[in-house]
Amino acid sequence: MLLKSTPHQPTFLALRISAENGCQLCRFLCMSLEQGFQGQKYLDLSLLSAEYPGCQLWLRARDVSLDRIILSFNESGGPTDSDGPPISSYGLPPGCYQKLENPLGYLDLFADSSEAEQPPAICGRPLPTSAGNSAEDFEVVRGWLVDCVNTHPLCASPRPDAPLPKRVIDVGPTDGSQEPRLVLTSGQKLHDQRYATLSHCWGGALPLSTTSGTLDERIAGIPIASLPKTFRDAVVIVRELGLRLLWIDSLCIVQDSREDWEVQSAVMGDIYRGGYINIAARAAANGSVGCFVPRVPEPQPCRIPRWSRDGTIAGFMYFRSPAFRIEDVERTPLDTRGWVLQERTLSPRIIHYGAQQLYWECLSSSHRQDGKYHDDAVNFQEEVGLVPLGNYKRTLGLYSPTDAEMLEEYRSALSRFMPDVKDVERCLHMDQWYYTVMDYTRWNLTFQSDKLAAIAGVAKTVQQQRGYTYLAGMWREDLVRGMMWWLCDIELSTASAIERSRIICDTLPSWTWARHSGEIDFIVSPEREAVSQVVSVSYEENGSFGQISSARLRLNGPVVMGHYNVSRSERGANLVGADGKAIGYARFDMPKATKLIGGDQLLCCILLRGYTGEALGLVLQQEGRQRNTYRRIGYIRDDDPKFQGCLLNPMPAYQETVIV
Q1: What distance in Å separates the CA atoms of residue 415 and residue 412, rounded to the nearest whole number?
Q2: Rounded mean pLDDT of 132-141?
């Protein structure tokens, strides 16, 4: 039995021996640590711990909620008050303390519902065993929905004057006495105009759809038996929520009509934003899987008594086996589909049907059936700099005023060279846009030609809410920072890298990321100061929102002439100036680009300057015989300690340059 603040094993080696002798808790701890140490470090710790007593490994409950125990350590032999309630400790060698980072591992903690009211309040619960379609499951979803509608000011229902989609599916009454049918909403008097939307994976093949030849048939009725499982499950969910209307892309857009596709894709963002609730089939790689997925039973947990202050057993808590992984709601089959980012970002409230449980997400809260603090987005934030999605929506300003707390953080950091709070707010919005694009370009699109269309709804909403000018994935108000993007893994020169760098729309200007098919990273650094200015941007609108052609960007900024030095290391300064001295490291937008540019003179246009003098800019190549007109072929930076400051020391002359 485990007592609060009581040492459990004297050394790490003793912990391993206890696990090998059958102690389930010790085995779980060793499994968690082994996952963190990845083999060799774990073995080294077990060998060294007997020689270095004194440093203790502690189990701590995190501050946010009691649903997970964190394995961490310190050299003082005990936890601090701010670390949450300690549960136990294990000997660790001080020599390893310098090599490892906290936390070392985790153990998921839960209690039965009957134990929930007894202190300490353990919010974790066992995973549900039902597939998401039990009476209890629907009661949970209805409870989340009612709470959101009645108590969340941020999650206001769509405007009463917001138009319905051109077509929706009437799923019929709750009792299923009528088959679903496609409804043309124009001229219809619908008693309840609330509608649900469905986010789903097509799975490489067109699911049941509406075509010009089947449109009248769909209006007459759609036998529910003819629907793929994901669609059938969505109909059941909509009925259980007391709604009648459902929007599914393949059924509500005429699939063989280019004209209808262009019209409907242009308002796709409005459709998801105006929906009452979004149903996300997260576990379904195709339409045959469905929303209701049979659950895989989890292994037997480790039951531990919980002690009251008088020393009696108050109840029990359970540690989940580390061998059983809770699904990552950010990394599901649905998250491989590029259109989903827009659908998720714009939907005011979402019920996620996962492989293990149901999840709720809205602007104000998030919930899970296992009761855990919904921290998937938080963990993702720590890895790549994103904020939780609800906060992200507020940060980008899609539904409400900008998140005040994050705005204040930006204001404090940028006040040195950005005194106007409006500029700070714009910088915050733009940074979140860049993070959105980075995430978006990692997902798949069936047709790469949809690259701008699949994110146009988010861009249009930002433009409507903030008044910024949208240009093919970029924003006129932040073009200098926005041009600092690069293609991931482009230098590998592999077949996949070549495919990722492929130009998918040669009418787009060279300075936009949307021109390429691959994954994009931005150099998001609001602390860097712009040293170039956009003088003008001319372009022709090309049909759909954000599509442009014949674009010419006139930029005024410091420029340096250079050429590629093939003898330099790829990690070294591969661009040199006229005097042969290094000026920085260039990363090109195409594999094997150096073979194409040869010894050509290249123009380096410097865009940003950091606090320590480092510079970032574009590498440009002359466009044919056009005087002073260039095309982007990559970017350059000089922040390596070996050649830091070369681009701006001395400060180059300014020049107006046209980039096409």
Answers
A1: 6
A2: 97
